[in-house]
Amino acid sequence: MESAASKAVRWLLRLSGVKALTEWTDGDILSWIIEKDLIWDAEIPARLLDRYQVAECRRADEHYFRFFADAGKSNRDYIFYVHGGGFIIEMYFLYWLFVERLIEATRAEVMVPIYPLYPQSDFDGAYRHVRACYHKWRELLAPNARIHLVSDSSGCALALRLAQELAGCGRSPMHCVLISPWVDMNVRGNVRAPYAEKDPFVSPQALRSCALNVVPADQLGSPEYSPLFGELRGIQGLTVFAGTADTLYPDALALRRQAEKQHVEIYYYEHQNMFHIYPHFPAVPEGMAAFEALIALLMPERVQYNVWQQGKTIICGK
Fold first, then answer.
1. What CATH number does residue 15 fall under?
2. Which one of 31, 89, 101, 264 has the fewest CB atoms closer than 10 angstroms to its CB?
3. What is the count of structural domains for the chain?
């Protein structure tokens, strides 16, 4: 049964007009954002700057932040976080809060690439930037570093493509975590419509508009842009967090089927009636349970109880 807190957050999200905005603008959310001057920079909240050591790299093809929880201490675990936002929304408070929670829970170094967005860039430009940041960062780490790739929403398309490329070279990260993944850029059909009715965040109109902004119309189903259809073998720790009231829930199910088809082990974690990126909401019990499950997966030595049983967990594949 859905918690009272989840219902309240769902109501507040609907009240905020986040989803309705894409419907009012007929899916052309970017034009509306530009008109209202609502585009912002990826400015780090002062709270993070006060609590952690932060290093920034800013070059033409590389822009990223590194967060160190325990300055001066050697790390064993490293997290590379790729945010979502439909290729048009920059890092904002909800993503930064998630980064802070990751740092606090794991004490790992967290790296956040600030990749270029539409209209300054397309999918290819965003991916080149994410890949360049990853490889530059990897050069700075010890060969035996435990790297965890974590992403959400549209960031999952970039992260999964990167994981596929790394796996092809035999250099897969220890985990590839996809939260509410958008890994199929196809805009045809109504497969997502039944779930969109319950999701207070994402509309099919928004997905359609964002996909056509950054991907050639005749290439939407290509594995280059829709990594759902790419090779999954060789990816370690493939993990999906999904809610059944998420417009992108079909993508999560399809990814699970692809992993099973390719005989790839996948940790599939699902909560009934949960909306888009629900693990980012600490006030929601289901979101907290999912976040704790994520930490238990990355660092089992830090979690002393079985949080996986609080949701529906399926481990399948090999």
1. 3.40.50.1820
2. 31
3. 1
